[in-house]
Amino acid sequence: MSEQPAKTAAEKLAERMSRLKDLHRKRNEARTQNHQAVVAEDKRNKLPANWEARKRKADWILSDEKAREEAKEKGIDYERAKLLQMDALTAEKLSRKKKKGVANNGFGDFEQATIKQYNSLVKNIKPNMEAYEEAKEKLGPAFYGDKNAILHGLHKDKKEAVDRMVQDLQKQAEKRAKFSRRRTHNDDADIDFINDKNAKFNRKLEKFYGEYTQEIKQNLERGTAL
């Protein structure tokens, strides 16, 4: 077996330089990738907290619209086809969600409820521009309520305006008295009430004192209470 000739000093230096260049290239690549990762993480941190959920929802909406258009072109009932591909558990959850949306009277939080009430009240306002200009001319700078104006006693509400406000408040009170949020019935829940009024009372007790009375209730059910 023939021996390989020993490498010269120039060859060894060239080999070392090649390895050194390779190490420099890998270090620069790692530095670039690390910088890109830091920039991407900083960008994600600046996004809203629910960004991922909103993005998934937007992607689902786009996918659903595309599938709906394709079904329309083929002459297929999209809703029926979607239900046929859906398992029973998912269909039941979807049905409950729709019923809950109807029970909430078209809004999901207090902000939307406030906006709805505000728009309803504003819609019934009919400004009297003649009275507005008359009061503006009579009161002068005090009409706008600057820092030096004493507003008490300058303006007196008309009887018609007061009556209109009283009627509106009465309508709101009557509407609140008639409205009760419809709750979905849970067949698996324990029956611990004798009528609807008692059920509401028990729900309030559970809401405020449930965490304190849970152990006592369990002991009573097991028969181990002292």
UniProtKB/TrEMBL annotation:
<dbReference type="InterPro" id="IPR013260">
    <property type="entry name" value="mRNA_splic_SYF2"/>
</dbReference>
<comment type="function">
    <text>Involved in pre-mRNA splicing.</text>
</comment>
<dbReference type="GO" id="GO:0071014">
    <property type="term" value="C:post-mRNA release spliceosomal complex"/>
</dbReference>
<protein>
    <recommendedName>
        <fullName>Pre-mRNA-splicing factor SYF2</fullName>
    </recommendedName>
</protein>
<feature type="region of interest" description="Disordered">
    <location>
        <begin position="1"/>
        <end position="45"/>
    </location>
</feature>
<keyword id="KW-0747">Spliceosome</keyword>
<feature type="compositionally biased region" description="Basic and acidic residues">
    <location>
        <begin position="9"/>
        <end position="21"/>
    </location>
</feature>
<comment type="similarity">
    <text>Belongs to the SYF2 family.</text>
</comment>
<keyword id="KW-0539">Nucleus</keyword>
<dbReference type="GO" id="GO:0000398">
    <property type="term" value="P:mRNA splicing, via spliceosome"/>
</dbReference>
<dbReference type="GO" id="GO:0071013">
    <property type="term" value="C:catalytic step 2 spliceosome"/>
</dbReference>
<keyword id="KW-0508">mRNA splicing</keyword>
<keyword id="KW-0507">mRNA processing</keyword>
<comment type="subunit">
    <text>May be part of a spliceosome complex.</text>
</comment>
<dbReference type="Pfam" id="PF08231">
    <property type="entry name" value="SYF2"/>
</dbReference>
<dbReference type="GO" id="GO:0000974">
    <property type="term" value="C:Prp19 complex"/>
</dbReference>
